[in-house]
Amino acid sequence: MRILAPLRRRSVALVWSALAFSALGDQFNLVVLTWVAVDTLGPKAGYLSAAKAAIILVVALVGGTVANRWDSRRTMVGADLCRCFILLALVAAWLARGQPDPWLLVATIVVLATAEAFFVPALQSTLPALVEHPQLLVATNGLFDATDRLARLLGPGLVAVVGALVAPVHFFTMDAVSFLISAVAVGALRLPHERRAPVTADRTSFRKNIVGGFHAVRREPFLGYLLSVTGLINGAWYAVFLLALPLAISNYLASSGGIGLGTYGFIFSCYGAGNLAANLTVGSRLLPKRPAGLIFLGTCLCGAGIILMALACTLITTPYLRVLGVTLSAAMSGFGAPLKDLPFATLRQLLIPSADIAPAMRAYLVVAYAGLLIGMLLAPLASTAFGSIDVMLLAGAIYLMIAVVGWLRFSDHQI
């Protein structure tokens, strides 16, 4: 398969193997923490995701000035080791006291979010250096994106299967080990040496870091539109899958054959199966000359899947068919995500100068997590006032609106 071709290069194989482990551990954390938080706090659990988004947003804005001058490989290794250390500290405290100290939970969220804000731009700026030809960027992006998609399939599925046998704390143990493996693999990577200027944190460099990435993206109107709607899409996705869906499972599925955390893990895993299927399909093909059609088709599928999930919860009366309807709809939504995400990532790397890729990725993070922050601040209020089903219907409508407007504006856009 074309998507596997980049693995012939040692550098690509090293980084991919690193992400394969850490992404799986992240999915353990995501599913277990989300379910426990929603089960304990109800709609207010959305504020935990909002807090994480706020941290990443601040770090992406403030820390980027320094990170732009760091070696990408060392930045990724340092981020992995910090995440490993804080998770091991959390596990040790949890085992010693029977439960983690509140301050350590807060510290864990802060460190994980901060490390992610440094790791992701460093990875994106590294990818073009790992391949020898621009045409392999689609396959390479597909391969790396498949890492998260595969983890989203396997991680929640493993939680669903072994969650009753393994104490929740040990999912964090596995995540810590995954970050250690990732750090070792990235540390073995060898990239061309880059000379970097000394760090000067003045107002000019800080302002340049904030606006430079946005300017780099907005030079291409199509990329500018995709960046501008990223916040809406990200906020809608998190509001659905990290709050409205678990609430809907509790209200509509648990009483009709669902088993709580296992059902949530299973549905999330089927979403990941849709992700992986689309990723293998898109990643094995060249980027189309008119990518807008593929991107907005994916956006429509995401939105339609979310709307069908909501309708399945309320319109299907047979218990097991209701669960099946939600599951198939989630897989449909999952299939749409790579159709829009993978071409967008490849276009950023092809159309933006290499020196601007990390700032551009940081701009993407700022918009994405600003949308996540706003979405997860509003979602608990909306869920309390209108219900989880209405939140899902609204989120799906946002996806469809973005796709229609984008298609009308950029259907003839060529690269």
Quick structural overview:
Helices cover about 80% and strands about 0% of the residues. It has 14 helices and no strands.
Task: Describe the SSE topology.
Blueprint: H1 10-41, H2 46-62, H3 64-67, H4 72-97, H5 102-130, H6 136-162, H7 169-187, H8 203-218, H9 221-253, H10 261-283, H11 292-315, H12 319-351, H13 357-386, H14 388-410
Helix pairs in contact: 1-6, 1-7, 1-9, 2-5, 2-13, 4-5, 4-7, 5-13, 6-10, 6-12, 8-13, 9-11, 9-13, 9-14, 10-12, 11-12, 11-14, 13-14
Structure description:
The structure is a single chain. The protein is mainly α and 415 residues long. It is built from 14 helices and no strands. Helix 4 (72-97) runs antiparallel to helix 7 (169-187).
Helix content: over 70%
The radius of gyration over CA amounts to 21 Å
Structural class: mainly alpha
What is the strand tally? 0
Shape: globular
Distance between the termini: 24 Å
Poorly predicted runs:
194-204
Percent of residues in beta strands: under 5%
How much is the average pLDDT?
A: 80
Q: Counting H and I runs of at least 4 residues, what is the number of helices?
A: 14
Describe the sheet with the most strands.
none
**What is the ordering of alpha helices and beta strands?**
HHHHHHHHHHHHHH
